[in-house]
Amino acid sequence: MFTPYGFSKSALLSIRIGSINGMLPPRLRLKANLLARELESRLVLQRFLIHLLIAYVKLLRWTCRVRPIDDPREEIRNQGQTYIFAALHAQQLATIVPAEPGTGALVSRSEDGELIAKVLETTGVIPIRGSGGARRKGGAAALLALVHHVQSGQPTYLAVDGPKGPRGTVHPGVAMLSQKTGAPVLPLSFIPQFRYVIKRSWDRVQIPLPFSRIDCRFGEPLYPIDGESVRDHVARIQQALMDLEQETDPGEAEQARLAAEARATAKAKRSQRAAKAQPASGSSADANSTSPPEADAA
The whole model's pTM is what? Predict the structure, then answer.
């Protein structure tokens, strides 16, 4: 996790350990030094991963060709509007390849988010730190920053089921942003010609391979509707993304469907176990203590 000043918490902890090292007894001093070395090793590894990921994204941008399909952006710009890109978290690496400079992107405050933020900065994308929830991890502040970015006339990108899923489940932030700014949501599906799918990840993240053609298919722009609830707007966006994936990537769409069914089955089993674990209700004592309907109404 990184602080607002760009230092990781592990780095700050390492600095604090060093500053008090001379005040510690020998045994604690040894433990403190071991902890400081471990934290420094983590920072070295993190910097290495950042440079490695930046180099790989540059390679993709140099060698991959992006083919837009049904692209409505020029028409929207001619109307004096901007737009909000909406894509699945699994496809986010492919979305970086044709990224428009000046695009704002919501990035989580996790250490993984720090990696993504550093990569985005090299492509001209503006990372906006926060998580999807409006009440947690800076979500409200991030939404406000996204609103200001869209109102300035710049596009914005969101991985709408991130950062932890469930896969394909659209979180409300994208609909809230659209309703607050009036900007349409552009559903996107990015399909690399050659890719590697990490099947054990929650989202089956896709890594495009160099020298691939990446098909970027746009769905119909989804404008906010007066009087529409956030939930209904979210449902429209989610359905559009599901339809796009079914059309462009039926194999991954089927895997997503099976995963959703497995989650629903597991949830139903947990509910059944919880219901069985609850004590039986409606004892005679409870019945005697219950007020009659007339008293409740009064």
Answer: 0.78
d(CA 80, CA 76) in angstroms, rounded, equals 7
DSSP assignments along 235-273, one per residue: HHHHHHHHHHHHHH-HHHHHHHHHHHHHHHHHHHHHHHH
Q: Divide the 298 residues of the chain into consecutive groups of 10 and give the mean pLDDT of each group.
A: 46 51 61 71 82 94 96 96 96 93 89 83 91 59 94 96 90 96 97 94 94 97 96 97 95 90 88 80 47 38
CA distance 1 to 46: 12
* Beta-carbon-side half-sphere exposure of residue 189 (alpha carbons within 13 Å): 24
Q: How many CA atoms lie within 13 A of 209 on its CB side?
A: 6
For 116-127, what is each residue's pLDDT tens digit?
Answer: 888 999 999 999
Do the bridges between strand 213-218 and strand 104-107 make them parallel or antiparallel, or are there none, so unpaired? unpaired
Pairwise CA distance, residues 243 & 241, whole Å = 5
Round to whole Å and give the CA distance between 132 and 184.
Answer: 19
